[in-house]
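job 3f2a | input accepted
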Amino acid sequence: MRRMCARIQIGLILMLVMAGFAVGHAEGLGFSGSVGLGLTYTPVPPATYNIGADLSMGFSVSGFSFTSTTGFDLSGFQSEAVTLAVDLGAVQIAEEIRFEPSFSWNELNIDISIVGVHLGFDLILADIGSPQTPTYSMGGILELSSAIVCGFTISSLTGFGAEDLVNLYGGIEAPFSDRLLYLFTHLGTLCTPPVELDATIVSGFYFEEQLLRFEVETMGLLASNTTWFDETGLTQLVFEMGYHFEEPAMAFLASMSMDGGFTITGIDFILDLTIDVVRFTSHTSFAEVPPPSLIPIVFDFQRFGVAFELCNVLITTATTFDSSFFFAEQLIAVEATIDPVTFTSLTTFDATGFAGQCIYADVQFYGVTLYTKAEFDFTGIQLVTVGFDLSFGN
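job 3f2a | predicted structure (394 res):
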């Protein structure tokens, strides 16, 4: 059975490659495709290892796209994710099916955009049980959003049999804070690709959660409010208020989170400044202290991020101090591109010293990208990946 699956995968790859080279030269067809393969070596203490393989392929033509990602390791099949999408202009339809390794997720998404109004509906079938005892449940998410006038945006998510709806926004609870904290987000995903978050499906197709978000960005003003409700009423609020200057490029922002009882659970202050090739970001955070503490909210952490470009090399650093004002962590990233080679290094230090390093390099030519990545700490190599990506067509 495994040999048959492997033959089918290889056959599909050959078909895609031949179709890409045959159709890619035809004008006006809009055909494009891609094939990728990554091999990962991971040591397993005390004296063994595991080797994993991720095979990805896809194509798009005339508004239709197909992608597939398959994972294997030495124990056999591990995962499969297939996505089909159709773009009809004002209407987009997509379906995603995942196996991990048994069936885990099937999501049908319909999006309609007309005159600045976006309407979406997700219907999800998921396995919410254990691998030994699968339990299937349905969930539905209704999305409504509109950019009205003068930089004002309103959006709403309603979940039936679905929770954690903020994951549809990438888990971002405060949109302007996320934008100003780009340096820290960039360092966090430099060697580890961002994980696509899903809503949580629960038993029963009943109302579970409502998320409302208002955003204003006009004449330098930055403001937003995100509010959560569940079947019992109000559960959480997040407010943001700030201002953005053009010359020099500077923004400051304050955000506050509250629970359903209007108790403050967190306060953040952000300053983001760009002068020429240097960008500086400061993030100060205060968090709620659980009872029986007499002080409701105290200092949580402080971090500084700096990025600058020197001789076409981008250097980014982030330094974090904990709630006791002691040094907690420092990240140093070096990114350089000398066509056709790209090199990235991310080094991590903590309070004890060197904590780890990730090195990534790739070379691109004629639609082919060859890449390698290695991660190690003071105990030795933790991961090594080599692979290629091939793109063809228009």
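job 3f2a | The two ends are 36 Å apart (CA to CA).
job 3f2a | closed
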